[in-house]
Amino acid sequence: MSGLYCLSVKVERGLGSSVDSSLLLALDLIGSIYDSVIEPDKWVETLDRVRIFLQLHNAMLSVTAVPAGNILVHASSNISPDLLQLTPELGEEAVAIWGGMAMVATLPLETPLVHSAYTAPETWVGNGYFELFAKPQHVVDEVMLILERNPALVATVGFAQHETMPPISTSQTRALAILAPHFRRAAIMGGLLADRTAAAGTFGSVIDALKVPVLLVRADLSVIHQNAMASRLISRFPMLRGADGKLSFPGEIVAGQIAAAVKAAALDSEGLAHGAGIPFRPANRKSLIAHVLPLKRRSGSPEPSAVAALFVIDPAAPIDYPLDTVRLVYGLRPAEVRVLDLTLRGLTGPQIAGELSVAPSTVKTHMQALFDKFGVSNKVGLVSAVFAATQTVLS
Length: 395
Description:
The protein is of the alpha+beta class. About 40% of the residues lie in helices and about 20% in strands. The strands form 3 sheets. A 5-stranded antiparallel β-sheet has the order 4-3-7-6-5. Strands 9-8-12-11-10 form a 5-stranded antiparallel β-sheet. Strands 1-2 form a two-stranded antiparallel sheet.
């Protein structure tokens, strides 16, 4: 049985038959979610597979840039095109049916939210979203994940219950909770890559624009593609790539851990869960950190294809954080981003105030806001948290 994770909880499907949630592994649902980041056209297939597994009626995922309202990623399963055309004009009604913006702003991220548990179904009557979109589909309830909600990006995915189906069960929400963090990571990465992917046309072109070393590899660690930053890294540490084109990672704390994570990406095995943040040491007193991102699996393809992208982070290098990514994930205001950028460059509070031509008290206010958003209490903690955040998004 192939897949990504063996999960121990039992999933009781809508019709009442009990199956082990390792079926998530067999159906490769988590792998499909990550495949959709690389090839957005696969979102429809992915949503279809998830909603069939959950035994729910339809599904819709949306990633939107705010406040402009530009749709970065949008996909649906089992919704007719004529009804889909209504969704842009029903946005305000969709928020209102959940109790309004003030209510939605309090809902937790990555948590399966059963609609009827938050607002009474009788209050939906007369709402445009219900009357024009849900009711024609005979939808009587839904379970939604808020994947991201910040001043720059809003992302959601929802699955609807048909009137002929049993009520949404705890087992269904548990299964969706397992998928939730993967949906969230994929939605954020998909939103960040959307414009670049459209312009570049290939994932290889996209990674060429990233400011960290990235290598696309086969299961045997042979390199298919590397960006300019990865070429610089290998020039600096030539022992990382042999004459046969295969990578090696001297000085791993656990020998073979990176290779195992890459093989796990190819085999869809549970080892991939440990593919992020693997330290190795290519030279004395020099440590690097590798992250493994699963790519598409093409079983039976006549051409060997990349199974993983390796992101290599140098914690001792001059800090060049992807602040756009951090801003999106943590909902930073523009002024906070400017203060954060200068802090990461080593400037003191008074120096930052001078650089930005603001009062020191203003810098302190922004710093406190940054501390609160990253859950730290000082600058050292802030720098560490930003570095950790960067690793999390890229892994």
